[in-house]
Amino acid sequence: MDRRSFLRTSALGGSAAAATTLAAPAYAQGKRTLTMVTTWGRGLAGVHDAAQYCADGITAVTDGQLTVDLKAAGELVGAFEVFDAVSAGQADMYHGVDYYFLGQHPALSFFSQIPFGMTFQEFNNWFYHAGGRELADELYGIFGLKAFPAGNTGPQAGGWYSREINSPEDFQGLKFRMPGQGGEVLGKLGASVQNLPGAEVYQALASGAIEGTEWIGPWADEKAGFQEITKIYYTAGFHEPGPVLNLTLNLDTWESLTPAQQAAVQQVATACHGWNMSQFMANNSSALQRLQAAGVQVMEFPDAVWDAFGAAAQEVIQESMDDEIYATCHESYMASLKSSAGWNSRSQAIFTEQRDRVIGL
Questions:
Q1: pTM of the predicted model, to two decimals?
Q2: What CATH number was assigned to the domain covering residues 3-151+243-281?
Q3: Which residues contact 78 (CB under 8 A, 6 or more apart)?
Q4: Where are the domains of the chain?
Q5: How far apart are CA 334 and CA 32, in angstroms?
Q6: Phi/psi class of residue 341: alpha, beta or left (left: φ > 0; alpha: ψ in -120 to 50)?
Q7: pLDDT for position 10
Q8: 297 beta partners
Q9: Of 43, 54, 142, 132, which is closest to residue 94 (Cα–Cα)?
Q10: In this predicted model, what pLDDT tens digit does every residue of 175-215 receive, in sequence order?
Q11: Does position 6 have pLDDT exceeding 50, yes or no?
């Protein structure tokens, strides 16, 4: 459809515009301004960077034919409102992590993260080469959306705690911030789980409203300042071995773009996906060293706790199997994961273990 008919028929150009205070996309001399909302507070290390990378990249690659106006969480809509805002056409796109929106559909977990799920590379194998992209189009299409992987934090840390975790029973009554299915796992272990936007976590931990939190990993966690509140840090977590950040467009907006503009959006998202993962991985080790130098205790969960995580995770993952799309995504996801792990366990895993032993890393 051309731009004029898009303006007549889209939610922002039609009657929905009168029902919202959000501005419609701007058109001038063949150029468009698209509004991006995000689940991230402005300046949050890594995650906001990924959103900014996409906004700047789309503007640059299209030579200004598309200008992306980035609104961080709370500047236009709240962090947990971006899915609905873009689905309704009140904004053109969002950047965020979709386990915040499992109330919309539980299968969104497969395009963000499931407990004991895929790493960055394993997700890419599935999404780009083993059916994930097609399932994403089906799922997001229900909500009038088009999603692209556009960021990844790599394996996330187990989190910050006010006390040591020596057994599964230590989670009983613990007020802990963890979103998505990971949070549901801790709930089964007796934790009082809270889902807070990233920008609100520091204050909640400092005030005692929560007794622990996961965020991302050493670099982003150091930037957030959690080491100022507690010194107990578990560096390996079960919940997010490779969480995917998505750039998600309103489907009408997507279909109104020219083929060249669509290609630009997709290519920028793909570039951001790898760039962001590298950003986190390049910074985590040095950040961890600084945290340890500041007195942070680097901990590992005991095997009994890992076993409890695993048993509860299987319960959580199975609970939505009565939904046909969820079950289909699960079958495809697990088949791809098994295939990827089968080769990795005989190649990269052995190589890295031997490399580190031989050269003394």
A1: 0.90
A2: 3.40.190.170
A3: 197
A4: 3-151+243-281
A5: 41
A6: alpha
A7: 34
A8: 232
A9: 54
A10: 999 999 999 999 999 999 999 999 999 999 999 999 999 99
A11: no
Q: Hey, what are 260's tokens?
A: 């060249």
Q: CA geometry: angle at 43 spanning 208 and 77, to 5°?
A: 80
Question: What mean pLDDT do residues 114-141 have?
Answer: 98
DSSP state of 171: G
Report which secondary-structure segment, H or E, holds 334: helix 324-344
Q: Any idea which residue has 């963000």 for tokens?
A: 112
**What's the rounded Cα separation, in Å, for the pair 216 and 178?**
11
Q: Report yes or no: 13 and 92 within 8 Å, Cβ to Cβ.
A: no
| Alpha carbon 151 to its chain's center | 8
Integer Cα distance of 109 and 180 in angstroms:
7
Residues 25, 33: Cα–Cα separation, whole Å: 6
C-alpha 164/C-alpha 278 separation (Å) is 31
Q: Which residues of 266-280 are buried (b: 16+ CB within 10 A; e: fewer)?
A: eebbbebbebbbebb
Interatomic CA distance for residues 193 and 183, integer angstroms? 6
Q: Give me the percent of the chain exceeding a pLDDT of 90.
A: 92
Residue written as tokens 């009140």? Answer: 90
| The two three-digit tokens of residue 119, written as one number | 């790493």
Q: Which two tokens stand for residue 339?
A: 């295939």
CB 78 within 8 A of CB 37: no
If you count them, how many residues does the chain have? 361
* Half-sphere exposure for 338 (CA within 13 Å, toward CB): 6
Distances in whole angstroms, Cα of residue 293 to Cα of each of 70, 213, 231: 36, 21, 11
Map tokens 């959690």 to a residue: 226
CA gap 122, 118 in Å, rounded: 5
Q: Per-residue DSSP letters for 25-46?
A: PEEETTEEEEEEEESS-TT-TT
